[in-house]
Amino acid sequence: MNYFAHLVLSRPTVESTVGNLLGDFARGVDPAALPAPVRAGLLNHREVDRFTDSHPLVREMKQCFSRKRRRFAGIALDIYFDHLLIEHWQKFEQGALDEVITGFYQRMEAGQSMMPGENMRRVTRRMIEYDWFGSYRDVDAIAESLDRVAGRVRFANDFDNAIEELQRNHNSICDGFLEFYPQLRRHVAEQAIER
Q1: Contact by Cβ (8 Å): 53, 107
Q2: Which residues lie closer than 8 Å to 9 by C-beta, 6 or more apart?
């Protein structure tokens, strides 16, 4: 799961928002030094990633990718899952999508001082400024996001234009996501890490 889905699976508090985003910025961070609600959010993020990465449906979706891109299939699926969650929002979630996104941005802004490291603050400010979550409605924005990730990989790779693989396999990936996501939601609720 990527940023948006992690926040959907978090609690509607500033601390939870920071903690659930922190999972992608936690290198060098001592979890024991975090306030308890932020640490719980970080642990929730990690449990979401663990469940997702080990799930048979997700493993099966990774096999849709060609060999040259399979190494990055997990990253591509994480980002595409945000798009699919938004595309199928009313099947899974309550509340108007735009209001939910606005709430995420407000909590991200309010949580800037709790975020360890300038990189996390810089990236989350960019998310807000450029409305990353709103842009995830558009598959072209997902393609740009994937290409930006490919550009940040520090070694030669064939990850650019990964959107081709996702679009070519859209139906099977979408079907897999629609089956997988309710299981993930149920798992997060049962684990109750942030309760």
Answers
A1: no
A2: 1, 20, 44, 48, 184, 185, 188
